[in-house]
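Subject: sequence -> structure tokens, single chain

Hey, anyone have a minute? Need the predicted structure for the following. Not urgent.
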Amino acid sequence: MGRLIRWMPPRSAATVPNVFAIALNEGAELRSLEPWQAEEFLAHIDRARENVDPWVPWASRSTDLESARATLQRYADLAARDAGRLYGIWLDGTLVGGTMFVAFDAAAGKCEIGCWLEPAGQGRGLITKAAEHLIDWVVRTRGIHRVEWITRPDNTASSNVARRLGMRLDGVLREDYLHQGTRHSSEVWSLLAPEWLARG
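Reply:
Had a minute. Here:
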């Protein structure tokens, strides 16, 4: 005789505890950002667009629910191929930013980490803490040897995070990409696995 299973009505996303979350500090957590969260993601990008667009190319392309879902689906597809991942940062239950593996190549032992943050999440060290979790995971669990951080020279907040993570500036790629009709240069920062492990 089978067991009796009692049906329970579904709870809203706000009332369901997230079992895949990493605490960053009081009230803030890091967790996966997936296509089913497109509506929340779009509302966040609308708040963050002015601050994020100069640094994160997909911010200007995520302008409605369909394009926001497409951005999240692109990273879901990358994750399925073990070629990239996207994580959100929630502060007091509101999505305020995130970190991502822009590129991820386990065979080559190399990855690139990126980030973004809306004003409400700034000044709390959230990006640094989130990036530390990502670096520790890729080095200790995935065996990645080189972690890169690429930013524009005028994005001093991003460069400061790279420094706090113990990265070194490898150099500047002069006018290496085009954004909204203007060519921009890129700083390339890097951290090697032995350097990270030596930090303890």
